[in-house]
Amino acid sequence: QVQLVESGGGLVQAGGSLRLSCAASGRTFNRYAMGWFRQAPGKEREFVAAINWSGGSTYYADSVKGRFTISRDNAKNRVYLQLNSLKSEDTAVYYCAQFRETTPGKGEVDYWGQGTQVTVSS
Question: Helix, strand or coil for residue 56?
């Protein structure tokens, strides 16, 4: 059974930074692309960032490009999201996701984490 467990969320002032972590278990981690999505109150869940199986390719939403960085450690079965220069509009629940394929563009999300709250105060 696949489990994705996020950590690292919290309350931060605008301009600050956070690092989210997602621990994966249940299937061979380095066979799948990983990603982060977020959902703000009253809005639909949206894509934030993704990374291919090896970490060699990364993808970002335009709204976070240059501020957020996704990375993975296949030896530790973890994916990370570094959030810098945070803005109030980044406030949301952030979800870790495991894709069906090695590259995010080739497959849907198979599994979701439970989410971690990020709140940015202005």
Answer: coil
φ and ψ at 104, to 5 degrees? -60, -30
pLDDT bin (cut points 50, 70, 90) of residue 15 is very high
Which element (helix H / strand E) includes 49? strand 46-51
pLDDT of residue 62: 97
> In 14-71, which residue ranges form alpha helices assigned H by DSSP?
none
Report yes or no: 15 and 121 within 8 Å, Cβ to Cβ: no
Q: Which residue shows structure tokens 């999201």?
A: 81
Whether 104 and 59 have beta carbons less than 8 Å apart is answered as: yes
Largest CA distance in the chain: 41
